[in-house]
Amino acid sequence: MDINSAKEFLKNNPVFWSRLGFCYDPPLKNADGRPLCFDEDLEKFAKTHRAFTKAGVKIHSSILHSGWVGVDEYDYSLTDRVLDAVFCNNPDIFYIPRIKLNVPIDWCYENPEDVFVYYGGPGEAEEIRKVVGTLKHDYIGYDSETGYYASSGKGGFKDTRPNVGGVIARQSFSSEKWLLDAGVALKKVIERIENSKYADRILGYHIGYGTSGETVVWGRISNKYGDYGINNRKSFIKWGINKYGSKNALAKAWGQREDDLFIPSPDKRAGSVQTLEKLMRADAGNQVCIDYDIFVSETNAAATEHFAKIVKECNKDKLVGIFYGYFMHIDNSAYTGHLAIEQLLNSPYVDFFAAPKSYYRCSGGEPGGELCPAQSINLKKMWIDETDVRTFLAEKVEESSWASDSAQDTICVLRREFSKNLAHDSGFWWMDLGGGWYDSDILMKEIAHLTALNERIRKKKHKSISDVLIIVDENCINHMRISRGLRRGFMEDFICEANMTGALCDVFRLADFEGLELSQYKLIIFAYCFQVDENMRNIISQKIPKDVTVMYNYSAGVLCGNCFCLNNVKDFTGFEIYETGKDGEVPGVAVRIADNIKVIKENSEKEIVLAKKENKIINLMPFMKSDCLREIEKEAGCIFYTDRTGDTVYGDNRFIGIFSPDEKSGEIKELL
Residue 182's pLDDT is what? Predict the structure, then answer.
């Protein structure tokens, strides 16, 4: 299958992923000296793969051990066993192995200068080496008293090593030695697979590393801060000199001495968000923090591209996928290293992005969501959504606070995720992380139904029929301190509520705006766009049709390039705002009264927080509810597909999916 055919095949066919071959990361050896697998009963998982094949699912995936077990040491016994299990009595499927490229523990001992170090951790190479392999060595990237989370299910291996209080993690993402050694490991395992009897059934490779193998920087989940490792500091300084032209210019930009350049402390990087100026990192001394966040994302993206290129060099017709783009549903996406989206969208080596579905407001009848604007990624690449639905059987397999209450609830969630992905022209995979989540005739009947429906719907070309366009921006996040209230109030919850108004909405990135066709939209919302440079302001003013209603959230455009000024908001939106002096996660802001302004809503202090002037609206209320947004949409002339707010709606020219929170039910109507 050539690369273009492979892309179409993946986009148009659902995938099933199981924990078949799920192994300890870092690679550990079992009692027989072989790579440790959490559950040696591979047939149990292979049986589920065959059940999904019977239901019509043609593409399958799981973790495939890289074979890299130590410095210059390789063992492919588990790799080969998993491949045999996947295809056993299941020869006609296609397979996408997920290959993790984190380093073995002895690599850390051999290369202490390239180890990731948390703030306050050891600073010298020998001090780092002494911690390697001890309980102060964070193996998995987050604190967990019970160790590796995926080993805690009923049956199989159970981790006895608490992973708490680590002062070092594993490889720095900037490590050239890691890129070299992991690259060798990747090339070796791909060549082994491509020379095997299964080569023609391998559709592509999903590359992972970092926390959970999701290209997530170590410590993000536990809110720990790095990387203060030896070579990472050198890499950051080298990056800075390249940006500013000289060491002297760099020191001036960072407010540091040439002989003492350093990565700022966690307190400096987090800081206060009590005022809009502080929230936007516009107070003095923050350029080094902004630069470090940009450096982390660019470094992470470069590592991902490095490995993707190796795959293409091995076989140019195999797809390459990555986990990337998490910013809409997590607070510290800059630390995560997931903001260099454009860098990877322009890469010739990356074919698809992936991420878990949102775990927020994701029960039956709720809107769910995505960690990244999938429609935006689909303009240049493919978005493949990990529909990690904890079915009603999940609680029986492992303790799960996210498990659905019933089969009906599970089916509602499955249909909503299916509708969301088809509406956004995305691919997706169903996931069984526990083992046994789909051991139900009712659920497998639903999988067969959705697989057949997917094939039928996708025969007709996707076209958006949304009346509402929501614009968000990842680049401004580098210039902002973390504010959960701001992110949730004007992006995460805002988009959830938008999907519950009864109207259809599209979500794209600000970087896409110039290329978007706007004629279909009746309402355009700049929901999370706090940095808008002069060029983009001109593009926006020229492109938006005169009869379209435009809404701006909070301090839209308060940064023009790197310049912070409240007048920037007025220049961009037409509304003058002022700070009210209220502290909190979201500094208080209100609209200044002026001629031709219609007051829509005031807060309890009689400050204007929602106002309209001609066909422009400014919204300064975090957590706008769907009924309020529906009134704005109604006045803009939007079409509604339900008679009430509260029902989640996804759809396009081919179908409409409506999901009720009351009955926890979902219905998908095909359109002629």
Answer: 98
Task: Report CA-CA distances (Å) from 220 to 53, 142, 232, 267, 491.
Answer: 36, 7, 17, 15, 20
The CA distance from 19 to 42, in Å, is 9
CB 661, CB 423: distance < 8 Å: no
- Do 464 and 520 form a contact (C-beta atoms < 8 A)? yes
Tell me the pTM: 0.96
Residue 441, Cβ density class (10 Å: 0-12 exposed, 13-18 middle, ≥19 buried): exposed
CA-atom Rg of the chain in angstroms:
25
Please state the domain extents for the chain: 468-644
Distance of CA 328 to the CA centre of its chain: 8
Question: Which residue stretches of the chain have pLDDT < 50?
Answer: 152
Q: For position 399, what pLDDT does the model report?
A: 55
**DSSP code for 265:** P
Specify whether the CB–CB gap between 151 and 39 falls below 8 A.
Answer: no
Q: Are 95 and 60 in contact (CB under 8 A)?
A: yes
Identify the pLDDT of residue 397: 58
Predicted local distance difference test score (pLDDT) of residue 113? 98
**Fold for domain 468-644?**
Rossmann fold (3.40.50)
CA distance 428 to 421: 7
**Would you say 657 and 649 are in contact if contact means Cβ atoms under 8 Å apart?**
yes
- 148 within 8 A of 23, measured Cβ to Cβ: no
Looking at residue 150, its pLDDT comes to 60
CA-CA distance, 177 to 181, in Å (whole number)? 6
Place of tokens 């003095």: 284
CB 590 within 8 A of CB 580: yes
From residue 361, give the alpha-carbon distance in Å to each of 1, 26, 134, 488, 493. Answer: 39, 33, 39, 12, 9
From residue 49, how far is each of 17, 129, 397 by CA, in Å? 8, 43, 17
**247-254 helix and 230-244 helix, angle to the nearest 10 degrees:** 100
Distance CA 487, CA 478 (A): 13
